[in-house]
Amino acid sequence: MRICVSIVEESVEGAARAVAEAKDGGADLVEVRFDLMPSLPTDLSPFKALDIPKIATLRTASQGGRFSGTERARLGLYQSCLRSGFDMVDLELGSPLLERRDRELRHAGVICSYHDHQGTPSPSSILERLVLASAKETLPKAAFQVRGAKDLLSIADAARLYSSTGKEFVLIGMGEMGELTRLRADRLGCAYTYASLAQGKEAAPGQLDLATMRSLSDDAPILGIIGHPLGHTLSPRLHHAALKEVGLGGRYLRLDVAPEELEDFLQVALEYDIRGFNVTIPHKEAIVPLLDRLDGSADKVGAVNTVLLQDGQLIGHNTDAHGVEMTFREMGVEAKGKKALVVGAGGAAKACCSFLSASGAKVSVYNRTRQRAEDLAKRFRGCRATDLESMTLERFDIVVNCTPLGMAGFPSGLPLPESVLGEGQFVMDTVYNPPETELLRVAKAKGALTANGERMLAHQALRSFSLWTGKDPGVEVMYRALREASG
Predict the structure, then answer these.
(1) Cβ-based neighbours of 289, under 8 Å, separated by 6 or more
(2) How far apart are CA 172 and CA 229, in angstroms?
(3) 222-318+458-485 in CATH: which number?
(4) What angle is formed at CA 180 by the lines to CA 30 and CA 462, rounded to 5 degrees?
(5) Which of 295, 332, 407, 441 sits most deeply, having the most CB atoms within 10 A of its CB?
(6) What is the pLDDT of residues 66-97, one digit of tens each?
């Protein structure tokens, strides 16, 4: 993968130093963003001795840059750049300088660029931009804000269509989900992709730093998590720590996928060669019928939290039940013969019921929608549905919350009546962010043994990571990442 480093410095001297650093770091070419300097420089001589292909960019405000001057001023800067060792200039589609380049920008390579910071259009519209740009005998470059799975598919489709012309091009998705287009630039057929010199030096949303991009070998795994919303997730912290521990230069992405785009995302996973991904709220059950097959763990639970792509197939696994089991084991809690209450009826609740049922517990399931609780209870031996009134009349040894109530980004509050909680219980909340929910605070005050979802998260993450990579970094790596994330 060829990498162009965008240089975002306020002075020529600082930019020249950054160019030299990018070259030493393995950049194939650099782009100097002159529009991000406080004023247009006059002395460009420090660039002359820097032996690396250089692009001069003076991006206009309408295209996401900061230059608001005249075309004459822009032409003057570009002419100075060409005299100072620059090889290419970046002109936006529609710039008047494109028509005058033969006279006034002779011998310069020209990138004809187009940026849309609002969204991503249809593949035909993207293709139209690329064709219009290439008609000027330039290298066409287009960048679009990615807001969902459909946008990623549009970019992949347009790249495939334009590649058939045999001409070079650059196509980029901006934003968090747009990272995929940068990581898979070669797969899209792009001439190169852009990166920042270092973290905090990004010229566009979604840019990764040079060191990260260079660490991604051809077989580096691209992993991720899908859900909606995803502001609470700490999974990227865990898996990046695991990748570092085992010496793999992969990347774990946070991919916010709305329910109506779930099926589209599965096509994205195939198009962009994602090795595997975790699945969280609200997709753990909805994804089941969309996969090619289920591993025994997922088939038993009836929910999927981990997907592995293997030989072109999407295979669903469930590592949540293992995470629940390890939480009970580490807390020294025996479930056999105990009365347990599970609150919720989604994927996490199914994993908990699977473990508790297999352990010999007597399980009651409460959900706001009674029918969902009854449907879940039918799946597992020793499980039954309950209601609010019946729940308050019973004494439970184990209480597990499997709803997102109390999670960062979700409503707070107790998922069950306070009277259900009492001394001597084991109360587990599958929520891990924040580390202590209102449920755990109240239960602890009443004398219960409590555990949040961190152990479940760490152990399910470890098993998922091993499925994807065949490597085992050890659960302590996951715990250490969690401690660092919580400060």
Answers:
(1) none
(2) 24
(3) 3.40.50.10860
(4) 120
(5) 407
(6) 999 998 999 999 999 999 999 999 999 999 99
The tokens of 188 are what?
Answer: 């899209």
Taking the CA atoms of residue 20, residue 23, residue 27 and residue 32 in that order, the dihedral angle to the nearest 10 degrees is 30
Residues 6 or more apart in contact with residue 441 via CB below 8 angstroms: none
Q: Within 10 Å of residue 380's Cβ, how many Cβ atoms?
A: 22
For β-strands 109-116 and 139-145, DSSP reports them as: parallel
Spatial separation of the C-alpha atoms in residues 313 and 75, rounded to whole Å: 53
| 284 labelled catalytic | yes
Domain regions of the chain by residue span: 3-214, 222-318+458-485, 321-452
pLDDT at 372: 97
Options 3.40.50.720, 3.90.1580.10, 3.80.30.20, 3.90.1170.50; which CATH number does 321-452 get? Answer: 3.40.50.720
**Domain spanning 3-214: CATH superfamily:** Aldolase class I (3.20.20.70)
Q: How far is CA 119 from CA 126, 146, 154, 178, in A?
A: 11, 6, 11, 11
Instruction: Count CA within 13 A, CB hemisphere, residue 310.
Output: 14
In 3D space, the residue among 93, 144, 95 whose CA is nearest the CA of residue 122 turns out to be: 144
Q: Which residue is it, tokens 């012309």?
A: 165
Q: How confident is the model at residue 118 (pLDDT cuts 50, 70, 90)?
A: very high
Q: Point out the catalytic residue in the list 284, 336, 362, 378.
A: 284
